[in-house]
Amino acid sequence: MTVRTAPDRRVAGLDGVRGLAALFVVLHHCFLMSFAGFPVNTGPFWLGWLLYGHFAVVVFITLSGFSLAISPARKGWRLGSKAVFAQRRAWRILPPYWAALAFSLVIAWGLGVPQPNSPPPDGRSVFVYGLLVQDIFSAPTPNGAFWSIAVEAQLYLIFPLLLLLLRRYGVAAVLAAVTVPAIAIGLLAPYASVVDKLTRFTPQFAPLFAIGLVAAGIVSASERLRRLPWQWLAALAALPVVIVIAVNGSVWTVTNLYWIDLAIGPATALLLAALATRRPAPLVWLLGTRPIRSLGTISYSLYLVHAPIVVAVASKVVAPHFPPGLPMFWVTLAVAAPVSVAFARAFAAFFEIPFQRYRSWAALRAAVRARVAGAPKPAQPAPAQPAPVGADAALREPVSEA
């Protein structure tokens, strides 16, 4: 069996997947602000797919496990220093998150625009959301997208353990360790109030994270495995889920998100494996186009800041002049989506990209002093060979923008 020992360092398309998923969440929130009654579809049937913004989080979580595991998969599933891993995750996630929390509070308090179906945030909100414990303690939300960031952070805590299980006991042990408890919780929750309380931790996301981790093994798999038609396997895995959703409708789907999430995970992981083998070629090409790739580079920032913008635009700018329904949706979309993307780009330039580029406070301060003084940037080592298009994105620590 021939094993790839020196695969391409970059997995094509991952930034594009992140970008499209984040944009889908923006469209989802524009839809919710324009059509009341969620999870009932009170809009036209052809926009019904916008009810399912939650599925973008399923993609983010699975992609997070996949992205974080690419490097260990190339090194025998070894992570290296757990302290360094934790420091890099915190450095990557927290500065943009805390800046977005401050921005969300400014919108809620300064403009008087709280998030829908939530009281205005208060001091407890600052404490709970600042410490990323919003899935443990309840508090008025300053940002409707923040719930998944806490879940993501908690999954980082089990990532080293999952790698250890995989290295010692194999794929089956990893998947069983998180899937069996998740299924047990889902089955017992309707009958045991104590178990039902566990569902607020969204335990179904742990199997999604784990299956993404396992799928990352494709980067160092044998050529025989890499040649399998992963894109068609992904389509076959997704087809039953799509049919069930279409037949049962949005109310049933949202009521059963716990199980639908678990069903979507394998299809997502298989698609990521296909992208890692650069298939299907048309999708890889689309995800690698400059606009999609550019959107992917700010996807985390876009996810973090869009909700207050969409709510403010819809409630303060659009609602006074347009009735709910299609007119409000089109105007909200036309204003809020480009404003969100433009603001996210500026936000990322200050609060996300510098923390990707510089790995410590000392390096960041030195870069800022050099920029202020007008000095040239410190020389960076030249690559040994020309880098592929978009390789700069591959040098960043991958992260899901849940």
Structure report:
The longest helix has 29 residues, at 82-110. The protein is mainly α. The chain has one domain (14-394). Helix 6 (171-188) runs antiparallel to helix 8 and helix 8 (205-215) runs parallel beside helix 11. It has 18 helices and no strands.
Question: Can you tag this structure with a few keywords?
Answer:
402 residues, mainly alpha, globular, disordered N terminus
Short description:
With 402 residues, the chain is mainly alpha-helical. 66% of the residues lie in helices and 0% in strands. The protein is built from 18 helices and no strands.
Q: Name the beta content range.
A: under 5%
Task: Name the average pLDDT.
Answer: 90
Number of helices: 18
Note the main sheet.
Answer: none
String of helices and strands: HHHHHHHHHHHHHHHHHH
Distance between the termini: 37 Å
Task: Count the E strands.
Answer: 0
The helicity comes to 55-70%
| Low-confidence parts | 1-8, 382-402
What overall form do the CA principal axes indicate? globular
Total tally of structural domains: 1
Which structural class fits the helix and strand makeup?
mainly alpha
Rg of Cα set: 21 Å
